[in-house]
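Recap from last week: sequence in, structure out.
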Amino acid sequence: MLAHRVFSGLIASFVLIGGLRSAAAAQAYIIVDSKTGYVLEAHEPKQKRQIGSLTKIATAVVVLDWAEHHGGDLSRVVSIPPAAFVGVTENNVGFEPGDNITLRDLMYAALVQSDNIAAFTLAAHVGSTITAPNSGSKMGPVDVFVGQMNALAKNLKMEKTRFVNPHGIDDKVSPMPFSTAEDMARLTRYAMNKAAFRFYVSQKERQIAFQHAGKTRNYLLRNSNELVGTRGIDGVKTGRTARAGDCLILSANREAEVVQQGQYTAVYPRHIIVVLLGSANRFGEGAGLVSRGWQLYEQWAAAGRLVDPQKVL
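Predicted structure tokens:
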């Protein structure tokens, strides 16, 4: 009888694992509890891969840290440099060299519609403000900015990550950029603690404006993350290159759980993060992993939310 129960349990486990694998064919993924960093489930989370425009999360965080700690003004109007167009094959917004735009609208363009020109322009401006004058360094402003991105990665213990530019383009670049699902989950947890970042990535649409040849141009950004606003998903970012495949990071919320413990009341935020890299169907798989994540979360919560130190980011 015991052998029969064990055999039945094994069958059920294989069915569950098989069902998950068919629903999530991404080459690497991870599901974590945002508050504690506890890993609910993962597949190849430490595998180094290209991540495309997920890179822009780091770009945005460096800009926001600069604004917060160094008095940077996101309302400042800057000019888009010609260098921003080098190696860029897409220009959906229609920017041209010399256009003037606020840093804040560049943030929206970079995060909502994943615009590469916007990301480069942010890096060029912020990098120019943190370059030490008369330091004799041959590093340009964008290189200085990317150095800050890598310093951020080091501080967050993203030990298998290297950024080489602010937008994630990996064609004809050397050395190659790379990261892992686990490292990107670390970065996303940090980013989502910033109210401004949460607001940017939650926008389904956003109107921006910029000056071209003395005239105002308006453009309606549409979020490249099709799942924003569904299933409790409030962000975060898409990424895609030929090398990276389709990548996606999702943040999902549910109403906090309130538990009465004697005379004390405990409030548990319910917030998970899903990272998937190298997907053939990122939105379908992403939605499936969010559903799977909530199942695992509820099981974990019912068992007392015990956190294994070996499974914490």
